[in-house]
Amino acid sequence: MLLTRQDLQNARSHYKSALDFQQKKILVCAGTGCVAGGSLEIYAELVRLIEQNGIACAVSLEKEPHDHSVGVKKSGCHGFCEMGPLVRIEPMGWLYIKVKLEDCAEIISQSIVGDQVVDRLTYRKDGQQYPTQEEIPFYKKQTRLVLEHCGHIDATSLQEYLAIGGYKAFEKALFEMTPDEIVKVIDESNLRGRGGGGYPAGRKWSQVKRQKSEVKFVVCNGDEGDPGAFMDRSVMEGDPHRMLEGMMIAGVACGAAYGYIYVRAEYPLAIQRLETAIAQNRSFGLLGDNILGSGRAFDVKISKGAGAFVCGEGSALTTSIEGKRGMPRVKPPRTVEQGLYGKPTVLNNVETFANVPLIINRGSAWYKSIGPEKSPGTKAFALTGNIENTGLIEVPMGTTLREVIFDIGGGIRGGAEFKAVQIGGPSGGCLTREHLDLPLDFDSLKKAGAMIGSGGLVVMDEHTCMVEVARFFMNFTQNESCGKCVPCREGTKRMLQILERIVAGQGEMADLDMLLELADTISSTALCGLGKTAPLPVVSTIKYFRDEYEAHVREKRCPAKNCQKLKTILIDPALCRGCSKCSRACPVGAISGKIKEPFLIDQAKCIKCGACIDTCPFKAIRED
Amino acid sequence: MNATVDFKEVDEILARYRYSAGSIIAILQDIQAKYRYIPREVFPVLSEKLHISTAKIYSVATFYENFSLHPKGKYVIRVCDGTACHVRKSIPMLERMRKELGLSETKVTTDDLLFTVETVSCLGACGLAPVLTVNDKVYPSMTPDKASELLAKLREEDCDAVN
Question: β-strands A57-58, A87-90: how paired?
């Protein structure tokens, strides 16, 4: 139990020296991705092998340190999910990719007992070998600040977080700064909310600080519901203490003694890591009453979501924590005035809070020197879809799309043509080839009709149908609409109906105008952000891919050859042996012919179900 | 076949949350974890002990997608249809499983209560797309064929467990 500031500093130096004793460290990625690939088994095997070899193995910093011991840790997500399971060897910085159980013995004998890199497990690209993580092009172009510890420290250990200087910012905020000074630093740093809106965090904090209420709350939004986004999950899993530290600083600054973290239930590992972190902080006295003798109290609780996208909206989230249906309400009053339980509430997302300790430690001038002035700092993006290197990346704001997709992401999968990138999930828009040199920051994207959103970047190649993508998102928002306000509840339903008609080849040209008119009405009249932004994917795809919509409507043709109902199913007469299997399988009797002669599909009757394709023993039927 | 509800267990759950009505979501989550769905029989009990109306509890239980008022299968398979999985073709694998199990969008659980197949908007494992989870274990980079193999394996596992 740490009772004073001195205790905290002593603990930090104690754990630092324990960590320094570990001459070599093995970091096994234990993010959701690598765990699915079997990284926990690899971890257990490595520990077993080290002990078998008679090497002192340190799995935690609790034990008395030994000289020459080897630290084995479960780290957070390294980000290079495509190449998992990942194992990093320190201090050399070697990164082993796609590690299997059988590889463990070689890793131990070569790299731990010996000092050799295991060549065959390192990353290779275009004939070149990259033994260290930092050299790999995927990492080289990144600036990892928020994610700096992800993959480099044990994600389940407060001791390690302390050993690398953890809770220094909290200590500074608690003992060296007044609440006004903290708010001022955050305000000057121009830190903008990473959850999508980009509202300045400092302004929010000062508004909460001004409120006269005795009870205030700090709430962290970990309800990362955008399909295609997993930045916050990785921070919660990989560096939970960093985010907690940010919340604790917000508590000091705004005079709040309670915090809530709202995490979606789809992230069981994140919940588990946060629970561990909170329990550690309580037992060390970093959470609770009279923290480090400062007289201040702060405690944090986790609130598990139950599967409602709309709960990512501020007022819906706080109502959900209260145990009600998570539906947004009319504003004002805003969350800063009347949020959780009607009290003033600081509500920021995971990445925003994770930025806070950095700014307090290094100052606002330093922070502003990264990225453009109006939206400084870095942004984490989840790079997914038809891209070579999927994974989690972090770049300075203002980095261009081209650098992200081609330099870091390694270009399009299988050498296909780049078509578009969907940014900001169901509330965002599409960007096309003409935007490749657009800097990624809050304001430039807004101008281009998209938004940064939480940071999901889904890359699409030439085989993706943009009308179908718009339908997909509309289907998502329509499902997730809470039903409280009419524009969103009814409007998204009508838009979805029209889009379904178009992809089925039953659209009319008037539908396009109707879509845009509905979009305009919904955007200006819906109650919350979900509704207001719901039409964006449709509007932006019509804007940039109108020709595709027109091909669906006028020619009943899908240029990407993706829409099932617009496909033509053909029998190749050269391959057909006339066995009649297909005509018997056809549910609508569209196939006819003479036995032992090529059969024919009546296109007018065909419903494109594809049942015939599966039954043909000669693979003579294909879609076109 | 509905599970018989052990009201003593329900009461233990309620006690853990100090009978606080504000914890209703967490309480329902714990009940669901126990029975794999929320049996309707618990509603009057919750209403009495938490001093909130059955309608209020019902409104919460039906609002959130994770709650089910119908029994679920032993293996709950959740196919991710988030954007990343969608563009990497998650639907063909979903359709294959539905076809093999005789399920559809409206009928999600097999009659023998072995499998439930549902979609989920994003599991946040986009780097491994397309993915599915079976009772929270993540299966990466799935294809229709791999999905069929998985079903066969789960069936075998179930047989082994019974014998």
Answer: unpaired
